[in-house]
Amino acid sequence: MSAEVEAPPKDRGSGHVPGEPGLWVFLLGDMVVFGIFFGTIMVLRGTHTEEFVSSQETLHLEWGVVNTIILLTSSLFVVIGMHLAKERNPKAPRFFLAAIVCGLMFAGVKAVEYTSLVQDDHTASVNDFYTYYFMFTGIHLGHVVLGMGALLAATRIARPTSTGTHRMAALEGIASFWHLVDLLWIMLFATLYLVR
Amino acid sequence: MTTELRAPSAPVQRAMAWCGVAFCVIYGAGILIAGFIPPPSPDDNATEISQFFADNTGRIRTGTLLMMLGGATMIPFFAVLTMQMRRIQGRFDGLCLAQLLAGGIAVWVFTLPPIIFAVAAFRPGQDVNVTQALNDLGWFLFVWNLGTVTCQAIVIAVAIFSDRAEHTGDGDPVFPRWVAYLNIWVAIGFLPGALLTYFKTGIVAWDGLLAFWLAAVLFFTWILVLFWATLRAVNREARSPQAHASKTGVPA
Amino acid sequence: MKTLMARSATKGSAIVWAALVIFTVISFLLGGEHLIDNKTLAAAIVVGIAAIKIRLVGLHFMELKGAPVALRAAFEGYCVVLFVALMGIYVFA
Predict the structure, then answer these.
(1) For the whole model, what pTM was predicted?
(2) Residue B16 counted as domain residue
(3) Residue A2 touches partner B, C-beta closer than 8 Å
(4) Of A66, B53, B153, C79, whose CB has the highest number of CB atoms within 10 Å?
(5) In chain A, whose CA is at the least distance from the CA of B189?
(6) Is residue A17 within 8 Å of residue C71, measured between CB atoms?
(7) What is the CATH number of domain A19-194?
(8) Is residue B65 situated within a structural domain?
(9) Is A92 in contact with A158 (CB distance < 8 Å)?
(10) Is B47's pLDDT higher than 60?
């Protein structure tokens, strides 16, 4: 690893940055971009309220709730995995693996939702609501896939035998990205499925 | 091996880096003068588009001229960026080659749209459908070019992440790692624009919030950050000449 | 000793997780079952709960509660600005 992250993460009185400082340029930047997405959804709700609400009712709210809880649970697995990895507990990798399984479940539920909507002719080209729904949840799903790749790497890095001075920094970075995936979904779910 | 690849003098490299700022100023001014802010809607009919070009012929000709010339200022900028990327590995490697290729293509990505727009404004009395088709082509080339730019951003990010600070001479990486993260953010932010072929209105139409406005902000932020990081790298290299000379002798 | 610390930290995270799940169910009942007649109030609660959940994930899961002030402020500022902006759009758009 490069010299920039050579210093192992430590408390410098002022506090500890999870992962490495540069990572937060990306994480906060991504949050801003998704903030624009959320705002766009709210503008559509205000300007095309009837179309918005009637389209929203065709979404599968229960599956959205299930997916929210799946992601929250995956985040908890990642947190536990981090605690165990810190003390080089050999059980740490399986918690990251459990988070990956949650990610796969999330993607599976999303696939069922997409299929069901398309079968009911609620495709992205019907109106702006469906366009936004498919586009924003699709971009989010891309984050989920990216995150699962990173978690797969984490299952190796978290092994007690793994070396490298940046072991914890790398794990913190991956964990932070996965939590980002979780928190972006929280507001995406609220604005697409719940706000009327 | 690596001693043959001598860097050009720091003043030349600095001037080449400043070309990135020149690009933002000249190209940005060209876009404004041509009246492309805000862009004409893809939903406008052929007569409206034709009228836009007929009413603004002088502006469009002047604006596109600036854009066409401004695009060329990225040639020295991407060259010096590649030079500095070379210092990461201590030699010219695959990522540098990819960056150089992407940079060369990007210059055409910047240059082709003004040429098309200038052609559209060339014969104001012509068939409105021809003007509309040229306008469509211009905007597609202008906004729907994210493939090469996204690839370039990812290449630069991977190169920065791969920096082990072994060849810089001062023990620090050539570029700060946050620049790599910014490149990834930019690459992701460009992606919604990929959908613009499907829409004539809304946020991913070529005049939309995501495809145009967000992409424009990300793009100019990206170029200016790369400029800053490149200039910083040039200055740091210039400040540690001995360290640099002794290190480059080591086989990469 | 270390294991004990990890165990109590895990316990704390589990409590945060439980709170997040309860919040999810509450907003599901409000948004899905329309328990509140006032639409703006219901929207404010749904968006507000989401913002609080984001803050909980950031502070406790991303461990931003121990981060430098600037980073923590940027994150919490995001939660506040997001809530205000979305509700501003809701009311005025």
Answers:
(1) 0.87
(2) yes
(3) yes
(4) B153
(5) A33
(6) yes
(7) 1.20.120.80
(8) yes
(9) yes
(10) yes
C46/A194 CB distance under 8 A: yes
A25 has a chain B CB within 8 A of its CB: yes
Residue B248 lies in a domain: no
Instruction: Residue A132: list chain B partners with CB under 8 A.
Output: 203
On chain A, the residues whose CB falls within 8 A of the CB of C10 are 79-80, 83
Is the Cβ pair A196, C67 closer than 8 Å? no
Q: Tell me the one-letter amino acid at A196.
A: R
Domain range holding C73? 2-92
| Number of domains chain B is built from | 1
List chain C pLDDT tens, one digit each, 93 residues.
Answer: 556 666 777 888 899 999 999 999 988 888 766 677 788 888 999 999 999 999 999 999 999 999 999 999 999 999 999 999 999 999 997
Range of the domain at B25: 9-235
Assess if residue B251 is contained within a domain.
Answer: no
Closest-CA residue to A68 (of B164, B96, C23, C72)? C23
Sorted by where each begins, the domain ranges of chain A are 19-194
ipTM of predicted assembly, 2 dp: 0.91
Q: Is A186 exposed, middle or buried (0-12, 13-18, 19+ CB in 10 A)?
A: buried
CB-based contacts of B85: which residues, under 8 Å, 6+ apart? B95, B96, B99, B156, B159, B174
CB of C79 less than 8 A from some CB of A: no
Q: How far apart are CA C44 and CA C90, in angstroms?
A: 9
CB nearest B177 (choices: A20, A33, A36): A20
Q: How many domains does the structure of chain C reveal?
A: 1
